[in-house]
UniProtKB/TrEMBL annotation:
Pfam families: DUF3046 (PF11248)
Name this polypeptide is given: DUF3046 domain-containing protein
Organism: Bifidobacterium bohemicum DSM 22767
InterPro entries (alphabetical): DUF3046
Length: 77
C-alpha cells in the first residue's frame, strides 16, 4: 500500500474530516504511542499503520478496506 492509497482509504472508511483529525490526534498504542502522521513520517509501512489504526478503532475486516478494495499484500520483511 502506498501512502496515497492510505489517505484515500482513510477518507473513504472514516470520512475526510474525522479521518484526518484522527490521523493527527489518535495515539496508536501498537506503534509506540505515535500518531498516524508521526508513524508515516518515521517510515512505518502504511498498511501496518492502517491495520493498527483499524484494530484500535475496532473496525471490522469487512469495512476496513472500503467498498471496492481488496486487502493489499503485506510487505516482505
Amino acid at each position: 500500500m502506498r501512502e496515497r492509497e492510505f489517505w484515500q482509504l482513510l477518507d473513504e472508511v472514516l470520512g475526510r474530516a474525522y479521518g484526518r483529525a484522527l490521523a493527527r490526534d489518535q495515539v496508536l498504542v501498537g506503534l509506540g504511542n505515535m500518531t498516524v502522521v508521526e508513524a508515516l513520517e518515521q517510515g512505518v509501512e502504511p498498511r501496518t499503520v492502517w491495520n493498527v489504526l483499524c484494530d484500535q478503532l475496532e473496525i471490522p475486516d469487512e469495512r476496513r478496506w472500503g467498498k471496492e478494495h481488496n486487502a493489499p499484500p503485506m510487505p516482505a520483511r
